[in-house]
Amino acid sequence: MRESVQERDEEAVIAGLVTDVLEAVEGADAARLDALLDPLHPADIADILEQISPAERSGLLALWHGGIDGDVLSEIDEAIREEVIESLPDNVVAEAMRELDTDDVVDILEDLDQPAQEKILEALEDADRIAVEQAMSYPEGSAGRLMQREVVIAPSHWTVGEASDFLRGADWLPDQFYHVILVDPRMRPTGYVTLGRILSAPREVLLWDLIEDSFRTVKARDEEADVAYYFNQYHLISCPVVDEDGRLVGVITIDDAMNVLDEEHEEDMLRLARVSDDASIQDGVLVTVKSRIPWLFINLITANISALVIGQFEHTIGQIVILAALMPIIASMGGIAGTQALTIAVRALATRDLTVSNAMRVVRREALAGLINGSVFAALMGLGGWLILGMPMLGVVLALAMVINLLVAALAGILVPLGLERLGFDPALASGTFVMTMTDVIGFFAFLGLATVVLL
Q1: Percentage of the residues of the chain whose pLDDT score is greater than 90
Q2: Which are the contacts of 450, defined by CB distance < 8 A and separation ≥ 6?
Q3: Predicted local distance difference test score (pLDDT) of residue 1
Q4: CB 203 within 8 A of CB 164
């Protein structure tokens, strides 16, 4: 209860802050706007920019003397980031980009169109521009796009004292780094040492004696989803990135890996709902309509398949009209059971907890759960058909149809995403449509077919 009250208080504070900001913009009160925005965290400023209209956003950016910086740009939702960048003077964009590490610049660039990318690249210093262009040359969604080029390295033979002196004298260190990476003469990483161990060890100790057991590398062309899995599976805080020859080209830190995991989770949720995986609350009406129409059309086709099945039993429904009122119950129960199993399966596939080695065990578990759930609700529906409707045999039909549909739903929820993944398709994208179609079609067919055989 305490947490929910706190959340409501925070929402009220944010809502009040947005109101105050808009009043300052409307009154052209630059001093008040500076006083409101300057103390805020970049993520909070980004939230405010996302919650107001384009016209209000433009007015705020024109009036705010504090000026938007790189940290704010990196926090802004990608759906409006390009709009914000285009509304800023070139010198503001240039200064904001110079503040960021290469991985953050790349993250911003890959969501922009070509003219906007060129505008930012021209604003960078030569060394930074070359580093960003090299990172952009890797495939989208790869470790090369995710890594930062600023890496702290040391020869494998250095001592703690030599490393400490080097770090204290360097004025180019990245804003965030957790390890000093040890390399051989050919720039191939051989291990890494945490900053904490360097600070706590005597100066004469060799860095090689302090390397972490968690050390591993990834290739620049590896999928970023695989990299995020390694971070989560092996509890990494940073990971060196190497080229095809094993030479060090960058490093990925835990904050970037966790962002990938968040994006993967968000994509799975959107795809399960048959919504475009880049959909955003910031999208306009036309973009929203365009992203949803294809899946609505597919749903229309599958609904017509269900209607065709129902049409085959028109004579049965005509003689026992109560069947039409009971059909949605069978379909709804099957749909919910299928969605439950499907959600678990898609999530387990994404985290690699559902594999070939344990697939049959999971399928057996879901089949047994479907039978048990079906039996429980079959008893309830059968009893209801007898006592409420006064038709004992209708209760039998309801009970049998419920068992069949919940069993099919449980199996489909596991087998459909497993099958799609084996065929090379994204199980989150298409599984929902297949599972819902199967539960509807089989549920209607079982219920009406049994009614035809038993009741007529």
Answers
A1: 17
A2: 397, 400, 401
A3: 39
A4: yes
For the chain, list the domains and their CATH numbers.
Answer: 19-137 (1.25.60.10), 153-272 (3.10.580.10), 285-455 (1.10.357.20)
Greatest pairwise CA separation for the chain in angstroms:
93
Tokens representing residue 57 in the block: 């956003």
Cα 292 to Cα 78, 270, 274, 437, 440, distances in angstroms: 19, 11, 8, 18, 22
Report the candidate in 73, 81, 66 with the shortest Cα–Cα distance to residue 104. 73
The number of beta carbons lying within 10 Å of the beta carbon of residue 9 is: 10
Work out the number of other CB atoms within 10 angstroms of the CB of residue 349.
Answer: 20
At residue 238, what is the residue type? S
Please give the full DSSP string across 59-85, using - where no structure is assigned.
HHHHH-SS---HHHHHHS-HHHHHHHH
* CB-CB neighbours of 44 under 10 Å: 15
Contact between 224 and 145 (Cβ < 8 Å): yes
- Yes or no: say if 50 and 282 are a contact pair by the CB < 8 Å rule: yes
Q: Which residues pair with 57 in a beta bridge?
A: none
Within 10 Å of residue 371's Cβ, how many Cβ atoms? Answer: 15
Cα 342 to Cα 431: distance, rounded to the nearest angstrom: 8
**Coil, helix or strand at residue 137:** coil
In tens, the pLDDT along 206-258 reads 999 999 998 999 999 999 888 888 888 888 999 999 999 999 999 999 888 88
**Which secondary-structure segment (H or E) carries 193?**
strand 189-194
Specify whether the CB–CB gap between 426 and 368 falls below 8 A.
no
Give me the amino acid identity at 382.
G
DSSP-based three-state secondary structure for 153:
strand
Cα distance between residue 91 and residue 88, in whole Å = 8
Q: What are phi and psi of 394, to 5 degrees?
A: -65, -35
